[in-house]
Amino acid sequence: MRHSIYGRSESQDAFTDLLFNALLGFAFMFVAAFSLMADPTEGGNVESKAEILVTVRWADRHPDDVDTLVEGPGGNLVWYRNRDTGLMHLDRDDRGLFQDRVTLDGKTISNPINQETVTLRALKPGEYVVNVLHYQANYPEPLPVSIKVEKLNPRVELVYYGTRELTGVGDEQTAVRFTVGANGEVTGTNELRKNLLVKVSGRKA
Predict the structure, then answer these.
(1) 3-16 CB burial, b ≥16 within 10 A, e <16
(2) What is the extent of the structural domain holding 104?
(3) CA-CA distance, 202 to 136, in Å (whole number)?
(4) 145 in a domain, yes or no?
């Protein structure tokens, strides 16, 4: 049996350890929470809202230029000459190999991916039309282009996925037409052709 003084000392040590561990845990949670807090002055940390994402891809490192065209219910058209209509935005106009190489600190960096994306920040009831246009062709063979439409909220849902073979400069094809209802749900899709642009040729300004 130990003297009572040892018992009192052990009790105090246990209390001190408990208090120290509690303070340590609190400090850890504070540091973790602080590290996760976003700096409002850093614009890169603010993500823009998107309801629907349209992704158009063709073969990596292919020199051809393919354009994405999306028409909204009010007739507004997003494409390389009109990249923003307020609710719809062309995030990247990919021009094949053009401007795929950049030089940073004396080193040339190449982006081999050919991809365009259009985001719909909000959904207005009505029909949307997604077309692809063969703006510039370098070979006589058809160019396979994949088109994917995804609804992002409240969960990711595939609205459409398919492939079109573009046959040369000015070939415009409808990938999909989808209808959004009053509650924001996609109520139907079809692939009926609808030309959004007349035949075009030449290079972009």
Answers:
(1) eeeeeeeeeeeeee
(2) 49-190
(3) 7
(4) yes
Contacts of 40 (CB under 8 A, 6+ apart): none
* Residue 110 belongs to some domain of the structure: yes
CB 157 within 8 A of CB 92: no
What string of pLDDT tens digits covers the 205 residues of the chain?
Answer: 333 433 444 455 545 555 555 555 555 555 455 444 544 444 344 345 799 999 999 998 889 999 999 999 989 999 988 999 989 999 865 554 445 555 556 665 555 688 999 999 999 999 999 999 999 999 999 999 999 999 999 999 999 999 999 999 999 999 999 999 999 999 999 999 999 985 333 444 3
CA 146 to chain centre: 16
31 shares its domain with 56: no
Say what the pTM is.
Answer: 0.68
Return the CATH number at 100. Answer: 2.60.60.30
β-pairing verdict for 88-92 and 52-58? unpaired
Amino acid at 89: H
Query: Looking at the structure, do residues 64 and 112 belong to the same domain, yes or no?
Result: yes
